[in-house]
Amino acid sequence: MPKGYWMAHVDVADDEGYKEYVAMNAEPIAAHGGRFLVRGGQFTPIEGTKRSRNVIIEFPSYQAALDCMNSDGYQAALAVRRKYSTADIIVIEGYDGPQPGE
To answer: Where is the DUF1330 domain (predicted)?
Structure first.
């Protein structure tokens, strides 16, 4: 079964306020098996619109990624995040098929 991912591009308006969101999202993400693959860090924009922060979280399955997003705990964190940042977020199913050169 393919994994599931959250892909987020975020502009943070209030770094101190955003810390409240970070503290609140830890429990629901961990409870659904989430693991950060990208959490900020250096990046080079190549094409399209960019935001100042990029995040990719891996989950054991697409359903686990959706369940986490829709959980009461994450929805409470999301309400806080929206006060301090603007984001583009998708939940997406991973690819588990053939790779180039195989």
So the answer is: 3-95
- Confidence (pTM): 0.94
Q: Which domains does the chain have, with CATH numbers?
A: 4-43+51-93 (3.30.70.100)
Q: What is the number of residues in the chain?
A: 102
Closest CA to 8 of 94, 85, 80, 83: 85
Banded model confidence at residue 1, pLDDT cuts 50, 70, 90: confident
* 3-state SS assignment for residue 65: helix
Contact 4, 57 (CB under 8 A): no
Q: Give the single-character DSSP code of 100.
A: T
